[in-house]
Amino acid sequence: MMMIYVLTAVLYVICLVGLTANLIIVVANAMKWKRLKSLQTSDKILTSLAISRGLYFFDIIIPNSMFQFLPWLMENDILLSIISILYLFVFYSSLWIATILCVFYCVRIVTYNYKLFIFLRTRISTMAPWLIQASLLFSLISSLAFVWYGYDFNKQFASINSTGNMTDFSEGIMETWFWIFAAGYFPPFIIFCAANFLLIHFLLMHTRRMRSNVSHNQSPNLQSHFSALKSMSLFLLLQIMFLTCTSLSMSGKFIFLNLQILECSPLMFHSLYMVASSSELRKMLILTFLCLFRSS
């Protein structure tokens, strides 16, 4: 029992740190929008990503708190369905918006002369808001499909369990349930990986060409390329870790609380990395923690 409390405390700390980092990104961009009356497309996508991730951390904290302090509420099927829909909607939305952000960087940085790249490069700024809205719709459909099948599964499981005739029912249904869940994140994940690999390959090739030129060894462009390369490589690695842990937790074969900690950690680290990459956001994060420390 003590270990459960320790793991829950660790999970809460991770979620609160991640929530704070994403809230700082949202507040900073809101202040920029108020000052400039407009935002760049990348800032709009980044703000949307920060909102979805902040809601994701919040959606992890609330059900765990209810399970710890109000366990009788978790016996309500309707409430569980609502929590599941919100969790999956935020999960899918976060993944889709991260994919849109990666595609945006890929299209703006990569200079391939294919017709598709030229088409996207000239229209990506106007397409981004529509892509975000379409991703939210797809996320809602995916989450409703998963929860609806899960509700139907629970009814079938209850009826079969009462007769005692299982016949590998649970294993087959859980596998189908997992693939319904995976169908919602496979498309954005494949697009995310493809865009990231294209971008990383382009940055590697371009960086090597620039380093071969002695006069550019210390150029700002080279340093910016190194920074972008590290950022996108970290983004890819943490996103793979996040989806791997989420898939394992949904399979039901591992300790759920441990996997939730591993599941939330990549998002927290990437959110902190985004804040640390900006001097303005870094100052806001330090001031926030100082204020919290003094108030305590």
Describe the structure.
The protein is mainly alpha-helical. The chain has one domain (2-295): Rhodopsin 7-helix transmembrane proteins (Rhopdopsin 7-helix transmembrane proteins, Up-down Bundle). It is 88% helix and 0% strand. It has 8 helices and no strands. It starts with a helix and ends with a helix.
Total count of strands: 0
Query: Mean of the pLDDT scores?
Result: 79
Helix-residue proportion: over 70%
Number of domains: 1
> Tell me, what is the CATH class?
Mainly Alpha
Element pattern in H and E = HHHHHHHH
**C-alpha Rg (nearest Å):** 22 Å
Outline the biggest β-sheet. none
Q: What portion of residues belong to β-strands?
A: under 5%
**CATH superfamily caption:** Rhodopsin 7-helix transmembrane proteins
Gross geometry = globular
Supply the number of helical segments. 8
* Termini Cα gap: 28 Å
CATH fold name: Rhopdopsin 7-helix transmembrane proteins
| Structural class computed from helices and strand pairing | mainly alpha
- Uncertain residue segments: 153-169
* CATH architecture classification name: Up-down Bundle
Transmembrane segments: 6-28, 49-72, 78-107, 128-151, 177-205, 226-249
Keywords: G-protein coupled receptor, Membrane, Receptor, Sensory transduction, Taste, Transducer, Transmembrane, Transmembrane helix
Protein name: Taste receptor type 2
Main location: membrane
